[in-house]
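re: ur question from earlier - yeah i can do the single chain one, its not a big deal. heres the input i used so u can compare w yours
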Amino acid sequence: MDIQKDIEQRLAGVDISTGHATDSFFNTNTPLDPWASRCLTTLADSFINHNQVFYPLPSKVALAKLDEHLLPLIFVEGQKHGLIRPKMGAAADQVQLPPEELAKELENFYKWAIENSTDLKSWMRLHRESPRIAISHPEHVPKHQVEEFLETNHGEELAGSLGMSFADFNYAFDVFARSVQYYHVLGESTRYFAHPIRDRAFGHMPILTELQKQWSWGRYFLRLIQETPKYKDIGWMLDKVSSIRNLTQKYNAAWYDLVGQSQPVQIELLETIASECDLPAKLKTSTRKKINATVNIGAGMVSAYVLASMPVVAVILQTGSTYILDNWNGAVSGKLGRVSIFKGHLQWDGLVSKQKEK
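and the output i got, formated as tokens:
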């Protein structure tokens, strides 16, 4: 992969399997993809930190007639927001994989499948039972290119050793091997973030940089939705992702921009964006402790120094001590981050990892 071109063009690719996995996180009527949380995180971060995100297509059939009703809902809605689009011009089945390469990938897949057999079977259940996938797969992938290879390379035996039918093993390995084709379709200048089932495919998958481990918008959305179900809405999340992406470009705050910047500089930029987008926030734990401690000893006994040095305490005390102590979980509007007395007192859980509070 040409990293320099990747940095200059800021192009990313995600696959349809990642889209279906993310859909399963929001849709309670289908089985959950075992890697749904990771896929949601990857998708949000890809959208925000890249100028353009593509999804490659599996076949010439899909390339000729792409039916959005068969695509993951997150892709359909993402296209409306200008966050993602199909990679046109070539499809996976136009990239031929020689038998020796298939043999290598079969070995990679089988080793991975042994270690992840339970999750693999859960993933297969989603792909069998989700109407959107069950209909789209046969239409978009009319032929599994690996089937003939498996029939002459112990496919039945390998499937049996995993407790899988040959049909399921064939389906899963076909998805795995297609990542190699997708990589060629996307091109070396496009950073391909594949579904985790493809993690072991020929070692091309992007490795998280230290910066990406330090902060992640996708991780913020995951935490927020898990803790507050009312935000479990694809449209709401994509509206926010689109706003964050626009401000990320305005403030030069993408992964590629913040390399080498100090953590305080990174955090200030991220919190500025979070505030301007009115992302749900919480008071920092340290601030809440000081507020509660103040209430416990009685607001009238608090020294003038404490109230002067932390005016946010005085403001919040006006909301009523009983409410704060007994009912409030610290959630506040992200817009408060733009109010001077609240600056430095808010946190967006999951956004920054191992953030040290002052």
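The beta strands are 11-14, 52-55, 85-86, 190-193, 281-283, 331-332, 346-347. not sure if urs matches, ping me
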